[in-house]
Amino acid sequence: VGKMAARLGGENRLVSLPLSRIRVIMKSSPEVSSINQDALFLTAKATELFVQYLATYSYKHGRGKEKNALTYSDLSHTAEECETFQFLADILPKKILASKYLKMLEKEKQDGEVAADAEEEEEEEEDEDKT
């Protein structure tokens, strides 16, 4: 792999992602003190292959095929539905309208208040049973 990493210059690059950016991301981890050139290359290549796999899977299983395009909703659907990609669900959330989001927040707030009220009633009943 050392020979491959050395040939990264020029037009026939073996990776498309910028190695300097990947190095910065890797160094942002407190456990990393130095980065071997081969490790950097392999991380870049693995990242590229992962993104390619995510895009291909999302395209094949999404509605973008109809438009001959990969859409954000295809990616977010994949992150939500496919177990392999569920760790991306926070990064690729489904798009919703702001008004719908506000309604969801209001409902969560109401549900939280209802749950809190129910807990208080249970505690009061327990206190009455003890006396």
UniProtKB/TrEMBL annotation:
A molecular function (GO) held by this record is: nucleotidyltransferase activity
Compartment(s) of residence = Nucleus
Q: What residue ranges carry the coiled-coil annotation?
A: none
Positions of region (Disordered): 110-131
Q: Which CDD domains match?
A: HFD_CHRAC1-like
Q: Cite the record's Acidic residues compositional bias ranges.
A: 114-131
Mention any one GO cellular component term assigned to this protein in its UniProt record: CHRAC
**Could you tell me which residue ranges the Transcription factor CBF/NF-Y/archaeal histone domain spans?**
16-77
Keyword annotations: Acetylation, Coiled coil, DNA-binding, Nucleotidyltransferase, Nucleus, Phosphoprotein, Transferase
Quaternary structure, per UniProt, is: Heterodimer with POLE3; binds to DNA. Component of the CHRAC ISWI chromatin remodeling complex at least composed of SMARCA5/SNF2H, BAZ1A/ACF1, CHRAC1 and POLE3; the complex preferentially binds DNA through the CHRAC1-POLE3 heterodimer and possesses ATP-dependent nucleosome-remodeling activity. Within the complex, the heterodimer with POLE3 interacts with SMARCA5/SNF2H; the interaction is direct and enhances nucleosome sliding activity by the SMARCA5/SNF2H and BAZ1A/ACF1 interaction. Within the complex, the heterodimer with POLE3 interacts with BAZ1A/ACF1; the interactions are direct.
Q: What does this protein do?
A: Forms a complex with DNA polymerase epsilon subunit POLE3 and binds naked DNA, which is then incorporated into chromatin, aided by the nucleosome remodeling activity of ISWI/SNF2H and ACF1. Does not enhance nucleosome sliding activity of the ACF-5 ISWI chromatin remodeling complex.
Q: What is this protein called?
A: Chromatin accessibility complex protein 1
Q: Which organism is it from?
A: Nyctibius bracteatus
